[in-house]
């Protein structure tokens, strides 16, 4: 059951006997007060309590700039942020837009991220953005994208981050194909160093994947940096918070560990280890750990019930020993993985 009162949902994760919703077998179903859920010989009566039946409050944000006469249709003006000159858009996701900008105080190029420029943004999106900024501000490591500033002006919440002059690994995979073994292992070893730093401070990233690892130049060397800690939470207090409905559980199903599916409020660092191994698997093969079905619910069930396909079946030239290291980190049971990401990193370094 996923519960975020007054919204509730039941998902069957490929159980042997199936799940019944008001007498009908279902894979997933939204449930309301008074519904009955059947599991085996047990029937549960759903009772929903909610402190407030209202929809999440929204914030009326001003338009982030005025369009010129020839800017019509779907075009958006760049926001006006004091002390910064917006150079252009880098990318966007479901919640925000990232721009390349120049900080006028020191002339440095930065990545400036804002909440979506839509006029109405709900409180949850604002809180999620601020959480990302707060967490980034506490993490200072060469393999984590650094946070410079977080602020709000004219109703626009924004943060400025270190600008990484490079691309994310998913984009690189799509344009170049699988990455050579030594390079891929070195990249993941660097990312694991950043994760170890975050874990030591009580944070779990929760969404490690190729798209969230940027590779850019750091002087004469190429350096991997973890991006988007927007889904990270202090795991020590994770029972007190969380995004609880399907699609908002904090992660990408194709790289999620089984326990992140079943116990997403209590995710520990071992989940990041699994996701890092799944990321390395994809870098080496350009394929996922499983032959995933379509649909998020089916993918979540697959993660929980099906073991990853042997990486050597995807790419024959991968050493058996390296495959064993990767699959240990991909163990279904978190207790069967390495004790921490640094132990995983130490094993990988033999192949770098």
Automatic annotation (TrEMBL):
In which domain of life is the source organism classified?
A: Bacteria
Q: Where is the Protein kinase domain?
A: 84-352
Per its UniProt record, what CDD domains does this chain match? STKc_PknB_like
**PROSITE patterns assigned:** PROTEIN_KINASE_ATP (PS00107), PROTEIN_KINASE_DOM (PS50011), PROTEIN_KINASE_ST (PS00108)
Q: Which GO terms describe its molecular function?
A: ATP binding; protein serine/threonine kinase activity
Q: Which InterPro entries match?
A: Kinase-like_dom_sf, Prot_kinase_dom, Protein_kinase_ATP_BS, Ser/Thr_kinase_AS, SMAD_FHA_dom_sf
Record key words, sorted:
ATP-binding, Kinase, Nucleotide-binding, Transferase
Q: Which organism is it from?
A: Limnoglobus roseus
| Name by which UniProt lists this protein | Protein kinase domain-containing protein
- Name the residues that bind ATP: 113
